[in-house]
Amino acid sequence: MKDYKIIKIISPNIGQITSVINQLFSLYSKEDIYQEFTDNELIIYLRQLDILDFKKNIQKKFPMRKPLYC
What we know:
Elements: E1 5-10, H1 18-25, E2 33-37, E3 41-46, H2 51-61
Antiparallel strand pairs: 1-3, 2-3
C-alpha cells in the first residue's frame, strides 16, 4: 500500500454516492484505483490514473445540466 496515495472524504451522506463511485471506479483496474466505504467516510487508494480519461468518463457518465460557474 505504500505506492498508493490515500484520499479520505468524510461526509454524513457517503451512503448516497456509493453506487455512483462504484460505477465510475469499475472502469479502472483495482491495482490503479480502488475505494473503501465506512458509515461516513470514503477512502480512495490511488496509484496511477490517466486524469484526462478519468475526467472524460465522469463527463460521459454524469453530464452536468449547466456549468458550475454560471
